[in-house]
Structures are given as C-alpha cells and as structure tokens.
Recover the amino acids of this structure.
C-alpha cells in the first residue's frame, strides 16, 4: 500500500476507534448480558458482540475487499494472509470488563500480504489510544511515541500471565526471579501497551491471533521484538505462547525458557 493511503486509513481508523469507545462507554451504564464460552473464566458479553459488529462494519466500509478475522465470529473464515487481513478483538480483558468495569482494551491490526501495517490498542478507561505502524510511526493519543529504551530483564518489570505463572510454564518463575518483579493485568492489550510505553520490559502469554495482532504491529514499529518462546517468528493464523519484549530482555528470556 502507498504511504499516503496508509496515512489516510490510519486517520480514519482512529476516528472509528474513538466512536467505538464512546459506544462502549455508553453501554457500560446499561445491563450487561454475560455468557460463558468454554469455561467460567472465558466470558463474552453483548458489548463484545455489538462492538465487534460495529468494528467489522466500519472496516468493511473503509476496505471493502479485505478479509476480517474477528474473535466472536462476525468476520470471515481467514485461511491465509494474502491481501488485506484485518484482525479484531472487540473487548480484550472481558473478565475485567465484567468484574472491574476497567482494564480492558479494544484492538485492531491490519496485515497486507502478511506484513504488519497498522495497529490499534485502545485502553478504554484510561483513554489511551496507541495507533500506527512501521510506515506512519506510533502515536499515543495523537502524539508521536518514542521507542522504549532497550532495557534488560534484570532492570525491568515483567508482564506475566496467570495461567503460565501458576503452572510455571516456560520457566516463568525463573524469568520473574531475574526481573524486578511480575505484573499481571488480565488484558493482553493493556500489558502489550505497557511494553510499548516502556513500563514493562516484556510480556509472555498464551495468545490467540486477535490478542497480539495489533500489538505486534505497534511493537515491531517501535523496535521491540515479537516471537515464539523458541525465538521463531510468530504466525498470525495460529495460537501459542508469544513473547513481546525489548531486544535485550528477549535474549535473556529465551535463554531461560
Ligand atoms: P479476551 O478477554 O479477549 O478473551 C487474560 O485473560 C487475557 O488472555 C485476555 O487478554 C484474554 O482475552 C486472553 N485470553 C486468551 N485466551 C483466553 C481464554 N481461553 N480464556 C480467557 N482469556 C483468554
Ligand atoms: Ca475472549
Ligand atoms: Ca483478547
Ligand atoms: Ca476479546
């Protein structure tokens, strides 16, 4: 895609994300319908569905030929990354949304022929919109965001995930012991945004494509690294453990895993 086309799309998508946020905030004052998907810890609400419907409709209007992969199933069956592929997580941190009315995000990523192109993470209650991509830079609420310093694991806080920590998968307890300490938020989007902001040196979790599609675009645009726990590249159509980190922290973490 031409840079000016990416720029225009970026401006329009930021407006879409702001509209989506306003709609979600309005619905938070009303009764939520909450359903369990696969377990009592895996929830979906009417707002997940309505926000996904809205985002998918807006993306279709902006980019009619694109394929859309969306968590709650409103989009298309996507089997390859050819052409324009949008990946949508309408509410990330649904458990927080239901129980805290706080600490959740909406996320959208665009890949063009597999290339990370645009990403959006909106921390709704903090009103922080991280937006952009490799061609247009990354902004936080419209202000250009500087790349975070390349801080090593031993000098920073580490974004953990509760299931991996409890089971000590990938030697997560050792990773944490080497860091300044663990932080767990219950939202991949918010924890990835904290890596973008330099508040965490890394985040490791078992993730689905929509959990890290936006974050990968933004992280790689800022010189951070996104990989599997064996150091191999991620694939946007499969689920698994994903590490988002500074270059130095990644090196230290891969040596421990
Ligand atoms: P979600 O809220 O969009 O489902 C903590 O639960 C984080 O892991 C959230 O970002 C959540 O995204 C994600 N996650 C991924 N798979 C999950 C699952 N099976 N159950 C609960 N959360 C999951
Ligand atoms: Ca979910
Ligand atoms: Ca998610
Ligand atoms: Ca979700």
């Amino acid at each position: 895609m031409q840079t000016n086309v990416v720029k225009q799309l970026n401006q329009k998508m930021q407006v879409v994300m702001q509209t989506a946020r306003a709609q979600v905030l309005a619905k938070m004052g009303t009764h939520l319908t909450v359903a369990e998907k696969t377990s009592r810890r895996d929830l979906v609400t009417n707002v997940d569905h309505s926000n996904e419907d809205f985002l998918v409709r807006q993306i279709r209007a902006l980019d009619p030929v694109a394929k859309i992969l969306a968590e709650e199933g409103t989009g298309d069956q996507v089997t390859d990354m050819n052409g324009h592929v949008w990946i949508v997580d309408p509410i990330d941190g649904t458990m927080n949304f239901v129980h805290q009315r706080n600490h959740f995000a909406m996320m959208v990523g665009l890949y063009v022929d597999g290339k990370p192109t645009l990403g959006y993470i909106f921390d709704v209650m903090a009103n922080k919109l991280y937006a952009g991509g490799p061609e247009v830079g990354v902004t936080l609420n419209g202000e250009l965001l500087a790349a975070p310093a390349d801080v090593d694991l031993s000098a920073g806080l580490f974004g953990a995930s509760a299931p991996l920590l409890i089971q000590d998968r990938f030697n997560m307890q050792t990773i944490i012991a080497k860091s300044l300490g663990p932080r767990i938020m219950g939202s991949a989007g918010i924890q990835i945004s904290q890596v973008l902001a330099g508040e965490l040196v890394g985040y490791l979790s078992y993730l689905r494509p929509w959990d890290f599609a936006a974050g990968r675009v933004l992280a790689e645009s800022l010189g951070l690294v996104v990989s599997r726990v064996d150091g191999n590249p991620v694939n946007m159509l499969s689920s698994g453990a994903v590490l988002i980190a500074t270059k130095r922290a990644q090196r230290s973490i891969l040596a421990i895993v």
Notes: The pocket of calcium ion (ligand 3) is lined by residues 89, 92, 188, 210-211 (CB under 6 Å).
